[in-house]
Structures are given as C-alpha cells and as structure tokens.
Amino acid sequence: MDSRLLRYFVTVYDCQGISSAAERLHISQPAITRSIHNLEQDLGVELFERKPNGMIPTRYADVLARRVRLMEMEYRHALAEIDSVRGGTQGIIRIGAGPLWYSKILPKLISSFQDEWPGVRIRLIGGVLNTLLPAMEAGKFDIMCASLDFPKRPGLVVEPLMHVKHSIIASANHPEAKKLISVPHDLAQSPWVVLADDDVGSSRIWSYFSSHGCRPPTISVETSEPELIFDMVARGLHLAHVPDLLLRDRGTEGIVKLRIEGPFWETSAGLVYRSGETQLPYVKRFVEAIQELKLE
C-alpha cells in the first residue's frame, strides 16, 4: 500500500476536514479526496462520514489511525536503531506525563539526562490519565509517566515506582481549616477546583463522598494547570485534592491539608511503555534514570 495514502488519511483524520488537511499538507483538495477514496476502495470500508461541517471518522477510521501511528512509531524506532548500530546518539523520546511528573519529577531528570545525551530531543506532553492512556495506546508516546489507576492493557508494560497519596487542601483562612476533623458533609458545601478531563480524579471525589453517605460537591472550576488549582485554593473559597508530593518543597504558604474522615485517594504511579521499546539505548537509559530516582 502507498504510504502516502496513509499519511493523507491520518492528516484528514486529525483535521476532520479536507480543506484544513490540504492546507497542512500543501496539496490540492481534489488530490486528498481521491486519495481517501482510493484507500476506502482498497480497504472495502467507509472511513469517513461526509458531513457539511467536515469529515467524521468511522470506527474503521479509528482502528486504522491507531495502527498507522503504531507503524509510524515502529518505523521511527527502526531508523533510530539503525542509527544506534552505526554509533549515533541522536533521536527523540516522546513522553506523556501527569501533573506530578511534569511539574515536579521530570524537569530535573530531563536536564541531567541531556547532559549525558545532548543529541536526544525530549517531547514532553502533559495531561491526565484519560487523555494520556489513549494516546499511549495509539503510539503517540514512547513512555508514559502517570497514575497507574487503570486495568491492564495488552502490549503495555506497567511498572509501579511509588505510592501516591492525595489530600484535600484549603486556604488557611477557609472555615474547614480551623476544624480538628472536616466531615464529608461539610466539605461538600464548598466549591471545588479540579483538573480538566480528569475523569479518574473526579470519580474518586464521587466515591469518597458517596461512601460517607452524602452527595459530592459542586465542581465549579476545571483547569489544565496545577498552579491555577493552588491559586484558586489560596484565594479562600475553593477546595481541591492534590498529591502530597506536589505540596512538598514549594511555596504553599497559606494552603493547608485538611484532616478528614478516612483516606481520600491513594494509588500507585510509575512507568508505562511497550515491550521491547527500551532497547533503543537512549530510551533504555531514560527509563533506567527514572527507575533510579528515590520517589517515595
């Protein structure tokens, strides 16, 4: 099969439209339309629903896009491995990381790693578990560093490295901060700020409150930035939950951990990668560098 057809297909899939895909690829719209039609003819399935407002991927397109990205990744790793055999030290490591990792753990590690491997470029993408894991499965990342609060996935190696405890935080001026113990019913009366798209974290909020027989709190702010969570909490009205490690060695003056009934949320965190992917020297070394960290 012509690899150009697959490249055009992935671009249309990402753009969900012919015109924007043509602009990105710098080719004509009719050329892309013909390519998609030829690919559908080869496969015997419809890859897109043609709508007035764009191209909507079908489930067949979802499958193909995932596999094409894995093919692209394998090709990229093949080139890197060939370069490695020739004694090369250049390449790229694509990392998907949760907030704890990209804001506290990885920056220092990446800096020291690139002292050892200056020719290796790091592409670090932040997210939450339910955005990172699908991207990892689709081949967009070589390594994922995040919470491991998910069922086993075929083809992925999961390596726990630390235990993460989440605590509920508030401003020191918040009424709950003055209590010896904050009960769930009272905690539910305050507005909460959470990470956007963090379905796992939001479900843990629901589980904690429902296990104590009360309705969950109102989520009033969602953000992709952990710093905004601290800022909103420090202003006095909002509550939030964060990993305890994020509270260490940072300027959280005016923010306190609340004493609550029972544990809120505890989970393991660590590495996720595909079998055999650490064979590239620089990827293997980066994984080893993470494994050598004292994370507890």
TrEMBL record:
Matches recorded under Pfam families: HTH_1, LysR_substrate
UniProt keyword Magnesium, yes or no: no
Gene Ontology molecular function: DNA binding; DNA-binding transcription factor activity
Protein name: LysR family transcriptional regulator
Assigned keywords, A-Z: DNA-binding, Transcription, Transcription regulation
Organism: Pelagibacterium lacus
Family assignment from sequence similarity: Belongs to the LysR transcriptional regulatory family.
Cellular component terms per the entry's GO annotation: cytosol
